Amino acid sequence: MSEPELATFWKEALQPRGLTPVKYESPEQLFRLFGLTDSQHRQVFYRLLQKYSFRLLLHDLLQEPTTPKRTEELCHYASEGSIREMLTTLAEIGVVEKVEQGVRLRQQGTPRIGDVLEHYVALLLQRELGMSAISSVSLQGGDAGGDYDVLALWQGKLLFVETKTAPPKGIHNPEVAAFFQRVRALLPDLAVFLDDTHLRVKDKIVLMFEEELIRLKGIESLHTMPIERVKDQIFHLNHHVYIINSRHGLLHNFTVVFRDYLHYHTGVNIIV
Fold it and tell me: Which domains does the chain have, with CATH numbers?
């Protein structure tokens, strides 16, 4: 995001809320993390990231970035042929290098997979849906700790996305409580809690959301503001807060969320 765009973002979305960004990163930081400067190489890497199997492969490569890994060690979530194809592409664009013991990442000081996901989500919203987006945002003026993973401006509305890379069993109540705290401090028009998994989120994450609602609002909140299914593993709270996974694709799931939000907040549902 350019400086003029950021100024617009701040004036339209953050200034009325009494908030000022003190630190943020452009979604393009995603490519700098891997030393990608060529525009074609960047586009290839971006397209690869749209595959869930590739994000899992990258997660494995980032676990021990300096340790070479054999192809067979990386075949947890895709066929050996598919993994070999992705590794070959990564070698061609300079993200990995082939050594005698296997492959390893070329870039020193490699990022956390969480950083990769939040930059990628911001870039996806920017490129595919035309939003202005920033990632890894620290704000002055709110009382919530930690960074906001992704903030975007969508049709004049402020969107907040919290991203998680752990499976549902690796996410715990304090993380959901922190998400609620950030939502209360930011007052976004809509907020999305995204777990980048194909596993069900209803059994663990939705349950934790209900537990935190009870803690904040009392047991009656489960009746006055129930967490309900929108579609598949996409859930809403008052059609303002959404829980999603990445099954069927991130772009598809975000589109479902935005369509649901518009349906309940534009008056269209009166006649549809």
Answer: 34-105 (1.10.10), 113-270 (3.40.1350)
Angle (CA) 104-113-256 rounded to 5° is 130
Share of the chain residues as helix, strand and coil, in percent rounded to the nearest 5? 50, 20, 30
Task: For residue range 132-184, list pLDDT tens digits in order.
Answer: 999 999 998 877 767 899 999 998 899 999 999 999 999 999 999 999 999 99
Phi and psi, residue 171, nearest 5°: -110, 135
pLDDT in tens, 82-119: 999 999 999 999 999 988 888 988 876 668 999 999 99
Angle separating helix axes 113-129 and 250-265, nearest 10 degrees: 60
Neighbouring C-beta atoms of residue 189, cutoff 10 Å:
17
Which tokens is 91 given? 């070698």
1 contacts 168 by C-beta, under 8 angstroms = no
Give residue for tokens 């997660």.
59
The structure tokens 């899992």 sit at: 56
- What are 247's two structure tokens? 């099954």
Note the Cα 39 to chain centre separation in Å: 23
The single residue listed with the structure tokens 């996974």 is 245
Residue with the two structure tokens 């998994």 = 197
